[in-house]
Write a structure and sequence with these properties.
Layout: E1 4-9, H1 24-35, E2 41-43, E3 47-53, E4 60-66, H2 74-84, E5 91-97, E6 105-109, H3 117-126, E7 132-137, H4 147-150, H5 157-180, H6 182-189
Parallel strand pairs: 1-4, 1-5, 5-7
Antiparallel strand pairs: 2-3, 3-4, 6-7
Helix pairs in contact: 1-5, 2-3, 5-6
GO molecular function: peptidyl-tRNA hydrolase activity; tRNA binding
Active site: 22
Keywords: Cytoplasm, Hydrolase, RNA-binding, tRNA-binding
């Protein structure tokens, strides 16, 4: 289906991980579903899925949260793309990014995975890195905390105050990639906030 988009939020399954930094991509998928009054259903591809529309009449959106752990997200993403007949250029992956400051969003298509194992696995499973990414900044830990532990911690109190705005901005960015293309979304979301 030419105007169907697969928008995937990466994260880990289960209540233990729901509020962690690593699951911010799935939090954005929840925001996109809430905006449309949609709920998720279990899909045989190994994900929870909500089918909806950007606006009445199109484009169609398949919002997805893999049921697998982050590092093996690729299988469900590739299975969903195949099931819905969606090419990689209509896949948008939302994920946490250590190398971007908290409360910042960057968008790109293709390129490397920057050490992000979820993105690496999606690129491997799709057999191409050429899909759009909404990279949601979580920043690096201050001090000596291991980044692997940092991403599995919940957001701090100060971060939680700004988190709704960050989630809304990332959801807006994903919608804009579908509606206007990556370049327009980059121009809006990469500009300094007023």
């Amino acid at each position: 289906m030419a105007d169907t988009w697969l928008i995937v939020g990466l994260g880990n399954p289960g209540p233990r991980y729901e509020a962690t930094r690593h699951n911010v991509g799935q939090m954005v998928i929840d925001e996109l579903a809430v905006r449309r009054g949609e709920s998720f259903k279990v899909h045989k591809a190994g994900a929870r899925v909500a089918e909806t529309w950007l606006r009445p009449g199109g484009p169609k959106l398949v919002l997805a949260k893999p049921n697998t752990f982050m590092n093996v997200s690729g299988g469900p993403v590739a299975n969903l793309a195949k099931f819905y007949g969606i090419e990689a250029d209509h896949v948008i992956v939302l994920h946490d990014e250590l190398d971007i400051p908290f409360d910042t969003i960057k968008l790109k298509t293709g390129g490397g995975h920057g050490g992000h194992n979820g993105v690496r696995d999606v690129a491997k499973a799709l057999d191409t890195p050429d899909f759009a990414r909404v990279r949601i900044g979580i920043g690096r830990p201050i001090g000596r905390q291991d980044p692997a532990d940092w991403v599995l911690d919940p957001f701090g109190a100060a971060e939680r105050k700004n988190l709704p705005v960050l989630l809304a901005d990332a959801a807006d960015a994903a919608e804009q990639v579908v509606d206007e293309g990556l370049l327009a979304a980059q121009q809006k979301h990469h500009a300094p906030r007023a």
